[in-house]
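Protocol step 4 of 6: structure prediction from sequence.
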Amino acid sequence: MSEQKELVLKVLSDVSDTVDLFYQQKDNEAFQRFSGVLLEMTEAIDTLATYKSEHEGFEFDEQKVCSILKDAMEALQNADSVLLADVLQYDFVEYMEQIADNM
């Protein structure tokens, strides 16, 4: 397994752990953890963009990821932790898992 794929999978695990905290209504802990996870998410997205430039034919839709992150930020601004968790789990994690499978 490539180092890039390992990084993406680690980030997905961390995001999923954070989502679980939101679903358990441990919002304070989840929001604190989310601030750190955001940095990891950014690193994973940068890694995928680099991977795409190095591997012809690798599909990675940066616009889709930007749209997902925009939805997540709107939920965050509205302090809607359930919507934020849903966006992270069902949009971000699921899409990134598909991407990781193709690495």
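Step 5 (inspection) to follow. Helices lie at 3-23, 27-54, 62-77, 81-101.
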